[in-house]
């Protein structure tokens, strides 16, 4: 009903009955956006950003599906669409945190200067708890958490991800 009432020539609405998938995607994309900002802050290029977003989506999908969400939700606007925007948009608070981390600023310094909340900061440890309970690997989330909460340098976090064993996609 809302889709019909609110949609029009300048606004197209989509519905999704996978509430869990939509909620998980909304939370997880913020952590990946911090990683995306850090890559950009370190001066890494568009290929790195594209790889990060792609692997971030894979990470998000693994956990969401393990928790009972539908894979299609993560491939749609609530997942991939919001992930791309949050990782690349100039107004993204989470991307901004990562960008500043990549430039060498400390998390506390960045967060103290912000008037709005970057949700990925608090979400990373919660996602890792869910992942451990479900026996799911979240390498990007692990490294973002280490940067934010364990004083790990962004360059060292990227190196650790790159040094992971090679495997098929």
At a glance:
The chain is an all-alpha fold.
Instruction: State the distance separating the first and last CA atoms.
Output: 40 Å
Low-confidence stretches: none
Radius of gyration equals: 16 Å
Q: Give the SSE string.
A: HHHHHHHHHH
Largest sheet: none
Shape: globular
Say how many strands there are: 0
Mean pLDDT: 96
Number of helix segments?
Answer: 10
Look at the helices and sheets and give the structural class. Answer: mainly alpha
What fraction of the residues are assigned to beta strands by DSSP?
Answer: under 5%
Can you tell me about this structure?
This protein has 169 residues and is mainly alpha-helical. The protein has 10 helices and no strands. The protein is globular and about 50 Å long.
């Amino acid at each position: 009903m809302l889709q019909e009432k609110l949609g029009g020539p300048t606004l197209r609405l989509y519905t999704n009955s996978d509430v869990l998938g939509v909620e998980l995607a909304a939370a997880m994309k913020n952590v990946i956006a911090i990683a995306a900002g850090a890559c950009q802050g370190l001066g890494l290029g568009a290929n790195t950003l594209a790889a990060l977003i792609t692997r971030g989506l894979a990470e998000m999908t693994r956990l969401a599906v393990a928790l009972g969400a539908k894979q299609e939700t993560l491939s749609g606007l609530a997942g991939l669409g919001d992930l791309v925007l949050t990782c690349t948009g100039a107004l993204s608070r989470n991307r901004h945190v990562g960008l500043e981390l990549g430039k060498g600023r400390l998390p506390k310094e960045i967060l103290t200067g912000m008037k709005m909340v970057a949700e990925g900061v608090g979400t990373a440890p919660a996602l890792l708890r869910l992942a451990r309970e479900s026996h799911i690997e979240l390498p990007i989330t692990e490294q973002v958490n280490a940067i934010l909460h364990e004083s790990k340098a962004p360059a060292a976090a990227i190196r650790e991800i790159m040094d992971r064993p090679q495997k098929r996609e």
